[in-house]
Every structure is written in C-alpha cells, then in structure tokens.
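Async update (no meeting this week)

Hi team, since we skipped the sync, here's where things stand on the single-chain job. The sequence we agreed to prioritize is pasted below, unchanged from the tracker. I ran it this morning and attached the output directly underneath so nobody has to dig for it. Comments welcome in thread, and please keep replies under the output.
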Amino acid sequence: MLSAVSITDNAIAWPSSQELWRALSLADYNTRVVVIGATLLGVAAGIIGTFAYLRKRAMLGDALSHATLPGIAIAFLISGEKNLSLLLLGATTTGVLGILAVVAMRKIPRIKEDAAIGIVLSVFFGIGMVLFSLIQQTDTGNAAGLTSFIYGKAAAMIARDAILIGVSAAAILIGCALLYKEFRLICFDKSFAAAQGWPVAAIDLAMMAMVVCVTVVGLQAVGLIMIVALLIIPAAAARFWTDRLSTMTLIAGTFGAISGYLGSTISALTPRLPTGAVIVIVTGILFFASMFFSPHRGVLASVIRQWALSRRIAFQHLLRAMAEHEESGHTSPATFEAVFVKRSWTRSALTRLIRRATSGGLLDRAALPALRLTSAGRDNATRILRNHRLWEMYLIRYADIAPSHVDRDADEVEHVLAGDVVRDLEQALNSKDEIAPSPHPTEQPV
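Output:
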C-alpha cells in the first residue's frame, strides 16, 4: 500500500538506476527538449562569452540581462497576454536600450564604465519590478507566469523554444566564425585596430548584439539573474587551460555545453531543484575545478611550482655557501656550523639540504661530518656563484645599487636567470669564464 505524500513535503527523492538511465539517454520527450535546448544555449553562451570576457564586458552582460525586465513587463501590459515572441521582443528592445545607455554614459567624462553599468542595472531592474507590481494589480492576471524570466524555468521549455535556441546558437557560431579575426583584434589591441582603420565601434556592436541574442533566448531557461553566469563563467574557466584564443573558445563552448547538459539532466532527475540554478552550480564547479587543477595556471600547480622553486633556491644557497667557503682560501673542509652561520636557515632545514646534496652526489659522503664538494658539486656551485657575481656586478654598474645592498637584490633574481640572460650579462660585463670577485669590501655572512 502506498503511503500518502504531503504536498508540503520538500524532501528530494533520489532517482533509481532506471530513472537515471532514462534521463542520461534522453528517453523522455520533455527531458530531451530541455536538455538539448540547455546544451545549445551553453555552447552559444560559452563561445560569445569568451569574446565578451576578453573584451572586459563581463558586467555589461549583467546590466543587459537586468535591462530586459522592463521590456518583458511592457510587452505584457501592451499585449495583455503571455505571448513568448512579444515578450522576447520587448526584452530585446529594452536590453538594447540598456546597452546604448551604458555606452552613452561612458562618454561623460566623470562617469566611468563600472558606474554606468551599475546605474543602468539598478535603474532598469527597479523599473521592471515596479511594472511587475502594476501587472499584479491589473484585471489581465498576475505576474506569476512572468517570474520565470527572472529565475528561469527550463522545465517549461517546449520544442519551439529549443528550436529558437538552436537557431540562435547556429547564428552566433556562424557570426563568431566570420568575425573571428575582427573580434580577436579588438579584444587584444583595440587601439591598433582603430589605427589600422577597422570599424571598432561597429565590431563592438556586433559582438554585443550576439550577447543580447544569447541573453534574450536564455531568459526562459536560466532567467535574467543567472544568464550572465553562462556568459562569463565558462570563458573564465577556459582561460585557466590555454593561452590560445581558438582553444579557449572551444573549451568555453564545451564547458557551456557540459553545464547545460548536466544541469538540466540533474534537474530532470530531481524535479524540485530549479534547472537554472543547477546549471549555474555545475558551471561554478567546472570553474573551481579549472582554477585549482589546471596544469599551468591552476592554484595547485602554482603552489607546487612555488614549493619546487623554494627547494631549488635553498639547495643553491647551500652550494653557493660551500663555493664561497672554498673561495675564501680555507684549506680544511667546511663544517656544519661554518655553513649554518652563512644564512638564516634552521638546523633541521640545513640537515635536510645536506642530506639531499649527499644523496645527489654533490657532497662527498666519505668526508662526513665534514662538508666537501665532489667534482660534480663543485661544477654546480661554481656556476651558481658565477651567476650571482655577474648579477651583482651588473646591479652595481648599471642599476646604481650600493655594494652593501647588492647581495640582497641579487639573491632575489639570480635563481631564475635563464641561459640567454646569463649570456647577455657576460657580454655587458665582458666576462666569459672567470668568476668576478666579490664586490663586498669584507667577507660577511650571506
């Protein structure tokens, strides 16, 4: 016997394996329409969002999405019905007006772009909310059906909506392909493009027209509050993975597609979760995963590189201290205490460095506890000391750094000197093989 379920029960029922397979395979018609529409929207938003992101138009998309609200309300008040075509036409009209308002205010000397965007966003959204209040007081009905444009209601998407999104996505893909060179030029060097005679304003307007198109067709799926997430977050996530614009565009489109597919599928499996919010959450997960785990720009990779650099610097300091000990004319091998006073390292850290140098064949194991460089260790230490002295002499001669302060400045740079930089220093100082003498008047701990 089935137990009665209260209408106030807000618990999320987890799907069975059969329901999961039906959702992933798009077996149900309604699920198929929603997922395909959301996926196509994600692709279009990710691709055009890449150019908007690089053009530093991220917040302009937010202003645009909020500027569509008065148009939706005005179209409803004029027509007296919830006709999707008329509502989208109204959204497009006021959205374009919002963009033009931002552009016009940017020309006022004392109003910067961020202030103009904030003004348009708040004023248009406020007008929209007032008009929605008026709609609730009319005899034509209430605004319950219009709130889907604020928060999104992808579950109500029908085949006509998915076709509209698909046509818009195809138009945006074709437009980006045809204007790829122009978009790339104004994204990276607008001044050069203007100097070469390119119509920068027209290209910018074409780009923003595509942003308007994505924003308007995406209102039904994710709502005006969250459509900006689909425009910007996939592009920002893709930026962590590549330095090439073409690759970044493809990755952003892929991330947008994944967000639309997974978000709408998860929402289909758990109907009480709003589709637009779930899509944005999936987009956010992709962004944070990219931010932390991308191999070149990710936080984890940066931490590992910094850790490896710190280890390498400490190791080079040990070898340089050994080379300076030999250079000072000491006939006996260095001791732990003699090296320890050279730098402000801890005893445990120095012990680990000596252990690493010994296991790497740079310190003579047989001489322990005395510290003596092997032939390989001496070669490495001589190279490190020579680079340090070259940089010191360069700073003294060309950067006007006092000899008493040059050691500290050289310490910050010498460990990242590339081979071509060392060759340039050699040419500047007419030095090829010899180690320059220490510029310090007396031997001091380093």
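Quick observations from my side:
The chain has 18 helices and no strands.
Residues 39 and 261 are 5 Å apart (CA to CA).
Reply here if anything looks off.
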